Amino acid sequence: MTAETELQTTGSERSRIAVLPFCGDARDPLHGSLGDALAQEVTRALSRTSMCDVISHFSSRSIDPRMASLPSTSAALGAEYLVTGRLLTSDQRLFLDVELHDATRDCLIWTERFRTETTAFFSAETDVIACVAAAVLECVLSQTVTIGPIRPLPSASTHALVISAISLMHHMARGNFARAYDHLKEVTERASSNAAPRAWLAHWHVLRIFQGWGSEPALDGHAALENAARACRLDPDCALSLTVDAHAKMIASGDLAAAENGLFRALAINPSSAIATQLMSLLYAFKDEGEDAVRLSERALLLSPLDPRRAYFEGLRSTAYLAKGDTARALEIANHALSLNPRHISAHRARIIALQVTGRSSDARRAAEDLLRRDPSWRVEGDFAHRAVEQTLLGQEWANALWEAGIPRRQGSKG
Question: Which residues contact 316 (CB under 8 A, 6 or more apart)?
Fold first, then answer.
């Protein structure tokens, strides 16, 4: 199945699987991070198949499997199959008791114990994650599936630091955003051979451009491209690295063709990547292909229904509806995104544009004033990836709408 074919499906005809955090000894704080790390790696491994949809780890980790029932978890995540597990450690050995549940029938359909050395897991010298994923898929699909090698982070505490950084950067408060950078710099030093922290560091720089927070966007663009390229060199088959590299090319250099190629490659490796699907939606919106942009954005929501980055996703989703010409829906989604987190610039932008292009100029001006109160330095080109968007007539229309609503342009910009 090609990446292009994959993008044309909604996912409704495929089974959906969610991997919940593995439970451990509640008295040992390390077990919480280790259980989360194990679930993330199994999710990544499962996501490499195009024969089912795998719910994003960012959504699945919001569920406490010790407290929630199978039916309620299934309903919340939109998953038919749930993978749960319990971890035990003894003398540097790691035991995983893994279970697969058919949530629609509320029954256990498979269970198995896996063993590995704890140090072997963190050094990627074991195939236990691939074995778990293959066994789960064999039960769900009634056939074996080959899973590629997985490279976990070097320790549970390092994994926890990455998760903390991701949460902090998407909170979009400047202080937390700066702390996220410090976390990621530390992790890239701890795990210098691992691609994921380097990719997230590149993503941090892209978000800084997106928010219009850097005094020199060109420097952030260079850092984003450099870190993303380094992540791809560390692991050429890492879907996250390819996704962030494509996003950096889209935002920092405006190379839509290269970005599209990178996202196709990422989705060929991980068809269940919510972030790659959402960014492909954004790219299609930039290209004025609104129908495809909306379809992909809705699929991204399906893949991660409880994502803690929901406000970020919703801001991008409103852009897809703008590109489709459905300004009423774009405005509705933008307002919802801002109710979740009023600091996401893309949602402010979509709200202003939707109001302006529908003739509600007074409301658009008030929305622009609200944005400028939050960030007086923000300009039309602030989060616009303007080198990409200005390539299209739609992008020029959006930029003009922002300017007409009262958002200033940078000095020397064409008006």
Answer: 278, 279, 281, 282, 297, 346
Query: What tokens were used for 324?
Result: 């489709």
At 108, give phi and psi (nearest 5°): -85, 130
How buried is 192 (Cβ within 10 angstroms: 0-12 exposed, 13-18 middle, 19+ buried)? exposed
Question: 0.90 cut: is pTM over it?
Answer: no
Q: Report CA-CA distances (Å) from 327 to 181, 320, 346, 356.
A: 35, 10, 15, 10
Strand partners of residue 81: 17, 102
Q: pLDDT tens digits, the chain, 415 residues: what are they? A: 333 333 333 344 578 899 999 998 766 766 778 889 889 999 988 887 766 889 999 999 999 888 888 899 999 999 989 999 998 888 778 889 999 998 888 889 899 999 888 777 766 666 788 888 888 887 876 433 444 455 666 666 777 788 788 888 988 888 889 999 999 999 999 889 999 999 999 999 999 988 878 878 889 999 999 999 999 999 999 999 999 999 999 988 888 999 999 999 999 999 999 999 999 999 999 899 999 999 999 999 989 887 878 899 999 999 999 999 999 999 999 999 999 899 988 899 999 999 999 999 999 999 999 999 988 888 886 544 555 666 677 888 898 999 999 999 876 555 4
Q: Which of 250, 271, 159 is nearest to 207 (CA)?
A: 250
The span from the CA of 327 to the CA of 135, in Å, is 46
